[in-house]
Design brief:
173 residues, alpha+beta, three-stranded antiparallel sheet, 46% helix, 17% strand, flat
Length: 173
């Protein structure tokens, strides 16, 4: 069972699965008994609940008519990969030989893709024996990520509950 519920404090709308005892607004953090939340629709279909929420948000922002002209999420999802160009097709259209590109990639020792800055910070925490803020920042600097970004990313990971810090040492959760 899914319900589109609203927050009486900040007007946030979100989808809740099941019938939990309490729900917390993802925007303002207000916690209430689920039964006391305004439920706009309840349904067994998660996609239907998401459609209703999206429609309400579009109407609220003055785009209800434009939203009504769109296909459903399910229909758009089914078509999402229809017109995607593959890597080889893209390279060939640009006059690049895909086999030569793969060979160069293997010689360079690439893992097949670039690593995001935040993933590099996570990697440092996993790989280092003593992942302190200074050690993670130094590791990241060696791998092309600024020390200041590494420190900010560590703080963000800890605030989000994706990492913990104890005695100056970080670990991923």
């Amino acid at each position: 069972m899914y319900a589109v519920v609203g927050c009486s404090e900040c007007s946030m709308l979100w989808v809740v699965e099941g019938r939990p005892e309490r729900t917390e607004c993802p925007r303002c953090g207000t916690s209430k008994a689920h039964a006391k939340r305004k439920q706009f629709v309840t349904t067994d279909d998660r996609e239907h609940a998401a459609e209703v929420r999206a429609s309400m948000l579009a109407t609220r922002s003055g785009h209800g008519e434009s939203f009504a002209d769109l296909d459903s999420y399910a229909a758009m999802g089914d078509r999402a990969d229809d017109d995607v160009v593959g890597d080889d097709e893209y390279l060939e259209a640009r006059g690049v030989d895909p086999a030569t590109t793969r060979a160069a990639d293997e010689r360079a020792g690439s893992s097949g893709g670039s690593v995001s800055r935040t993933e590099r910070v996570r990697e440092a925490v996993r790989e280092l024996d003593d992942p302190t803020s200074d050690a993670v920042a130094a590791y990241c600097a060696e791998h092309g990520v600024s020390e200041s970004y590494a420190r900010e990313a560590l703080d963000r990971l800890a605030r989000r509950g994706e990492a913990s810090e104890s005695g100056g040492t970080y670990r991923l959760l």
